[in-house]
């Protein structure tokens, strides 16, 4: 959302009113996202700030109390790479990840604590010490709140050794609330 702020400011210089539309994601993030953008634009009223805080508190509380779906059915350590990937990508994105050619991916660094790669020109950094996933494709910005992966990150995990990829996904999954999914700038 941060990259839209200069565009909105530029548009506001040329018109009386700027209207924004926020897709009402199935988790209901549209209200929170709208208020976050107003804050970034420095036009958030005190009442809106209070509403933003309530929305953020609600999503933090609901993220903590939800029981992860895959853990309800089996031990996490027994899940294979495919099952783990499904906990981060929907079937359509996983199919699109498989459609990315191997020569469109370049892994620049791969250690136990960090993976750096480029997929179709988009940058990915997964830092296990900082518990951060950074990426810069347009689809990624829509997925930050839900902490799910786009096809590029899916392709990265599909291209790694299965055991190593599964181990990394387990680490992210078991501490998902602590992880930060951010836009790479």
Write the layout of secondary structure elements.
Blueprint: H1 5-12, H2 30-40, H3 46-65, H4 81-86, H5 91-98, E1 105-110, E2 114-119, E3 122-127, E4 132-135, H6 138-141, H7 151-159, H8 162-174, E5 180-183
Parallel strand pairs: 4-5
Antiparallel strand pairs: 1-2, 2-3, 3-4
Helix pairs in contact: 2-3, 5-7
Task: Please describe the structure with a list of short key phrases separated by commas or semicolons.
8 helices; five-stranded mixed β-sheet; 5 strands; alpha+beta; 185 residues; 14% strand
Describe the structure.
There is one protein chain. Helix 2 crosses helix 3 and helix 5 crosses helix 7 (151-159). A hairpin with a 4-residue loop joins strand 3 and strand 4 (132-135). Residues 70-74 have low confidence and may be disordered. It contains eight helices and five strands, in the order H-H-H-H-H-E-E-E-E-H-H-H-E. A five-stranded mixed beta sheet has the order 1-2-3-4-5, covered by helices on one side. With 185 residues, the protein is of the alpha+beta class. The protein is globular and about 55 Å long.
């Amino acid at each position: 959302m941060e990259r839209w702020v200069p565009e909105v400011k530029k548009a506001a210089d040329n018109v009386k009113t700027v209207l924004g539309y926020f897709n009402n994601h199935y988790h209901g993030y549209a209200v929170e996202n709208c208020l976050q953008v107003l804050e970034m634009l420095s036009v958030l009223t005190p009442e809106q700030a209070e509403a933003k805080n309530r929305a953020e508190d609600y999503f933090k509380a609901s993220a903590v109390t939800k029981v992860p779906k895959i853990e309800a059915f089996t031990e996490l350590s027994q899940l294979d790479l495919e099952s783990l990937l499904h906990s981060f990508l929907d079937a359509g994105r996983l199919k699109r990840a498989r459609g990315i050619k191997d020569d469109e991916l370049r892994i620049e660094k791969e250690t136990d604590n960090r993976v750096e790669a480029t997929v179709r020109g988009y940058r990915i950094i997964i830092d296990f010490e900082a518990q951060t996933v950074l990426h810069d494709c347009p689809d990624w910005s829509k997925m930050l709140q839900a902490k799910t992966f786009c096809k590029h990150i899916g392709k990265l995990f599909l291209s790694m050794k299965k055991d190593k990829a599964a181990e990394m996904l387990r680490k992210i999954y078991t501490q998902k609330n602590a992880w930060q999914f951010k836009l790479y700038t």
